[in-house]
């Protein structure tokens, strides 16, 4: 069976989906044609917009609902729906993988909760509607933990690695830069006050000279990176990238864990929409 990649997508503002001229909208809308893999059997998505005390997954008995978790946008946006089927087999497999957590002393033992009434938040359905507009692939969403621990989310991502060989596409949705206050007070013609962090994360993920151990060590020290706290006053939009790295950086001595920058678009001095893929 095909080994599927792991994706980190920058979902941007909710109404980005309405802007057909936007470069990121165009990229995500063309992903299905651009991707070199076949259609996945199911998609597991992790979004910055769902946190629980412990990890949770959607386990609805019907198609997933669309959550319009925003306000003040165009009326058209609230009329959009994305209601894919769920995947009982993927739910069972994730439950099985979580049950194996803590099997070694270096790994946290994770609990997994079920959310039968939870739908898809905009960090999930807006990119998926662009990528797979027919909603013809079953979807399960996995939450973040509200403690936002980098190492724990990385380890959780590692738990998900076997899914890549089982027909599952893992998509993690967040932002490499997310400071809305800075966005609104920075003029469009100014130089970026947080470009150093964007440069840092792109370098860490894509530098082919780094070993797997070096890449992981440096990545998990993100709080020491230049301008990190300015780029992320709270890191909920960055943590999905850590999950993606955990799932994408293989537990193999032959793997360097390098990612490919598959898209990047500076829409504003404080807002760069970057997407990465681990093949």
TrEMBL record:
SUPFAM superfamilies named in the record: LigB-like
UniProt KW Methyltransferase keyword: no
Cofactor(s) demanded: Zn(2+)
Keyword set, alphabetical order: Metal-binding, Oxidoreductase, Zinc
InterPro entries named among the record's database cross-references: Extradiol_dOase_DODA (IPR014436), Xdiol_dOase_suB (IPR004183)
Start and end residues of each Extradiol ring-cleavage dioxygenase class III enzyme subunit B domain: 20-250
Single GO term (MF): ferrous iron binding
Family: Belongs to the DODA-type extradiol aromatic ring-opening dioxygenase family.
Name listed for the protein in its UniProt record: Extradiol ring-cleavage dioxygenase class III enzyme subunit B domain-containing protein
